[in-house]
Every structure is written in C-alpha cells, then in structure tokens.
C-alpha cells in the first residue's frame, strides 16, 4: 500500500470522526460531552435515562459503518483498510444488536416483542453475511498484494 493511499485512509477516518463529533454536538449541544448530561428515551410506558456519552459510542459505530459501507461499495471492495474498518464496525453492530435485544426483551411484550426479535435476527443475519462477504473479498486482496 502506497503512502498516498494510506494518507487518504487516514483522512477518511479523521473526517468520519469529525462528522460524528459534529452530529453529536448538534444533537446534544456542548453539554452532550459532559459525563453528567442525561437524556430520556421513552419506549411505550418505560423511560430510559442515560448519559449522552453512552449514546456516543453506538452512534459513532453506526456512522462509521454507514460511511464505510458506502465507501466500500463504491470502491467495489478493493480497499483493504476500508474493508477492515467495515468488518470491525460490523462486529460491533452485531454486538450492539445482541445487547439491545436482551435489554428490550425485558420491556416489550406480546406481538411487539416477536416483531422486534424478528427484526433483530434479520439485522444480525444481514450483518453476518456482509461481514463474511467483506472478509472473503479482503482475503482475495491479500493474494494480489494488498
């Protein structure tokens, strides 16, 4: 990998990180980066109060996933570092959907729970297939000198 292409990947990483920080700032304001700042999420009759910094990590992973998914598809899976970032964010999203399913199972009931569980399984299946395909394409890049 040449020095210019490595610089380009670093610019993509830094640009995506700046995007995450700016979007978090616009959503929560300057106080959103303080550990004591909280926001409420209402799911039916249940309120979740959480620190805005706890929201930042899944939000950042989701932003990185979306940006790099578009980039990897646009470059036809030919960039090894971009494929790697996409695979890492896919793994984190799989972990988040698993954890979210466990949390929401205690809140939801009846058909809503069944629909939510079905949606999570479909999302996990799509992420797993994307992860496997990206790993396969990245492995083929190694054969040709990535």
Could you explain the architecture of this structure?
- It is a single chain.
- The chain has 146 residues and is mainly α.
- It has one domain.
- The protein contains four helices and two strands.
- It has a two-stranded antiparallel sheet with strand order 1-2.
- A hairpin with a 2-residue loop joins β1 and β2 (46-51).
- α3 (80-105) packs antiparallel against α4.
- The mean pLDDT is 87.
Give the topology:
Elements: H1 3-28, E1 38-43, E2 46-51, H2 52-74, H3 80-105, H4 110-143
Antiparallel strand pairs: 1-2
Helix pairs in contact: 1-2, 2-3, 3-4
Give me the count of strands.
2
The shape, in one word, is flat
* Overall average pLDDT: 87
Write the H/E string, N to C.
HEEHHH
Question: What is the count of distinct domains?
Answer: 1
Strand line-up across the major sheet: 1-2
The number of helices is 4
Helix fraction, binned, reads over 70%
Uncertain segments of ≥5 residues (pLDDT<50)?
Answer: none
